[in-house]
Amino acid sequence: MDDYKFLFKVVLVGNAGVGKTCLVRRFTQGLFPPGQGATIGVDFMIKTVEVENEKVKLQIWDTAGQERFRSITQSYYRSAHALILVYDISCQPTFDCLPDWLREIEEYASTKVLRVLVGNKIDREDREIPTHVGEEFAERNNMYFLETSAKEAENVETLFIQIASDLIKQARNRDVPKYDGITSIDDRTTSVGETNCCSKIQ
Ligand SMILES: Nc1nc2c(ncn2[C@@H]2O[C@H](COP(=O)(O)OP(=O)(O)OP(=O)(O)O)[C@@H](O)[C@H]2O)c(=O)[nH]1
Fold it and tell me: Is the ipTM of this complex over 0.90?
């Protein structure tokens, strides 16, 4: 029953209140939960999807945005295959914190991690960050970019399916040397990082 070809770990990070939990719930359960409380530490959900005729199990880790949980959440970065950095398009401070988040990602995540920038809450009328500003930031920092609405289910499925598809491609490329009986050092998807530090985000 639990047959899947790939297992990928996807971790969401970003300031408190940007909608990380809602994005995960929308994708895994198809709902927009009312009165969602702040995440305490880290939560995770699993969803198996079929991408390119392959069954892919996504283990999605939803981290708390609040500063006081930072040392817990950092420890989840290092084994992530993909990191989704989320900001709220209607809240400038959440965008202004992105460089701090990137520093954190660089310190704790694998250098090979797939990094995706997401501007959430595009259903809101009070936008503060234009699309092109998010796009340029992503481009400068070698990240994929997508704008979403967890509320209206816009681009949420696309976000996770695209990540799964890219990770399959990466995994397949890394698999090639194995067919010759050679294990590439590139097979390592994680890197080592210490987890005690605090950067001022939020
Ligand atoms: N309008 C709108 N509101 C959203 C959207 N996504 C989340 N929200 C709201 O934003 C608030 C915070 O959402 P959460 O998903 O709890 O945010 P979070 O990033 O997980 O917050 P922490 O767990 O504290 O890190 C809630 O009131 C949600 O209803 C969206 O796409 N559109």
Answer: yes
